[in-house]
Amino acid sequence: MGVKNQTQVVEFVFLGFSGISYGHIYLSLVFLVIYLVTVLGNLMIFTMIQLDSKLHTPMYYFLSHLSCLDICISSVTVPKILVNFLHQQQTISYNQCMAQMFFLISFTGTEAAMLAIMAYDRFAAICKPLHYSHLMNTKVCTVLAFATWIWGFVDSALHTALSPRLDFCGVNQIHHIFCDLPPLMKMACNDAHINELAIRIASLFVGTGPFLFIIFSYVFILSSILKIRSITGQRKAFSTCASHMIIVIIYFGNGMLNYNRPHTGYSLEIDTLVSTMFCIIPPMVNPLIYSLRNKEVKGALKKVLESQSKSTCHHTRN
Questions:
Q1: DSSP line for 88-103
Q2: What CA–CA distance (Å, rounded) separates 207 from 212?
Q3: How far apart are CA 173 and CA 291, in angstroms?
Q4: Distance between CA atoms of 65 and 46, rounded to whole angstroms?
Q5: pLDDT, mean over the chain
Q6: How far apart are CA 114 and CA 170, in angstroms?
Q7: Do residues 20 and 27 make contact, with C-beta atoms less than 8 angstroms apart?
Q8: Phi, psi (deg, nearest 5) at residue 13
Q9: 20 to 30 Å CA-CA from 53: which of 14, 119, 160, 164?
Q10: Backbone angles phi and psi of 175, in degrees to 5
Q11: What does DSSP say about strands 91-93 and 173-174: parallel, antiparallel, or unpaired?
Q12: Tell me: the pLDDT tens digits for 190-202?
């Protein structure tokens, strides 16, 4: 079945932008700006964390991994969209589609787990402050971070291994703007109950599991914050969680819209918008949220800009 599938369908056609008959140049510029802001913003966060010793803490260690994930998620989807706009042909080969789906599922699954680990870090810092250095030592942080990457890639490997079972019966039009499992499942003309079962099990462990873990973590965190007698202390504790909470709401909110909405009743344009909001917009806004709301990040950014300005002036004088 897998061989037949690959010989019949050698490429897919994306229909996500089929309703847009003009203005492709302007749309490609929009995606280019989004991609540049995403890469530069997350690269800036990652670089500052590496250079500033004050940011060498578990929270910012996990944030550096989150920045890498955001760059990866955006790089899996946006460059191909830009190439298709350049060639004025919304196509992707079968092998490229499988590769894009594999890495997209890997990175999004890893990000969900990483957000859960970041919630645990905040729980340990606020609810167990006396044991924090032991609970989140360097070895533990390293193991947790790389375990989330393995978690995402194992989940993706399972779905990708089952994908050759899908038979498209010669149909190659994807109602989407990139390769993802749900739209490919809609195209399948054969019995795909094993693939559907794998999706349900994975969504339970990879999506719902981390989300519930985050919810329970914040129940304990908020309970501990409310026990702090000082209003200033409460604000300081809450401020360390605010940026993470905003990112969690954006990520899981868009994820639920993307994967759990009804299969009918939505136009292609709405599907395209929701997909964009899930995989393209969050990686761009995450560094903005942390840099605008976090005093330590803003302080590190100010130091980098000042040192760069002094270096420029020094070279100019010479």
A1: T--EEEHHHHHHHHHH
A2: 9
A3: 40
A4: 8
A5: 83
A6: 39
A7: yes
A8: -115, 125
A9: 119
A10: -80, 65
A11: unpaired
A12: 877 888 888 888 8
Range 70-83 average pLDDT: 93
pLDDT for 305 equals 62
Tokens representing 83 are 């190439």
Q: How far is CA 105 from the centre of its chain?
A: 10
Return d(Cα 20, Cα 16) in angstroms, integer: 9
**Residues 248 and 119: beta-carbon distance below 8 Å:** yes
In the CATH scheme, what is the homologous superfamily, with its name and number, of domain 9-317? Rhodopsin 7-helix transmembrane proteins (1.20.1070.10)
Provide the β-strand partners of residue 173. 13
Joined tokens for residue 166:
């899908």
- Label the pairing between strands 11-14 and 91-93: antiparallel
Whether 166 shows a pLDDT value over 90: the answer reads no
Say which residues have a Cβ less than 8 Å from residue 72's Cβ, sequence separation at least 6: 103, 107
Domain boundaries defined on the chain:
9-317
